[in-house]
Amino acid sequence: MKTFLQVALVIISILITIFVMLQNQGGGLGTAFGGEASFYRTKRGAEKFLFGGTVVLGIAFVVCILALLTV
Questions:
Q1: Which of 45, 51, 54, 69 has the most beta carbons within 10 angstroms of its beta carbon?
Q2: Where are the domains of the chain?
Q3: Side-chain half-sphere of 13: how many Cα atoms within 13 Å?
């Protein structure tokens, strides 16, 4: 069981990294110094899937860590 949780933790970690890197958050550091006006818009399509997937994977990551601590 412990080995399964460790493998699951590694896989989830890799998937979280991929999902976060695929998300597009504007123009990088240029927006931090006032390079672009920001406005609210809703997430659609792939952006919504990546955001939801990141949240689900984050929750699964925490659950795996807690389960690994109790085993």
A1: 54
A2: 2-70
A3: 8
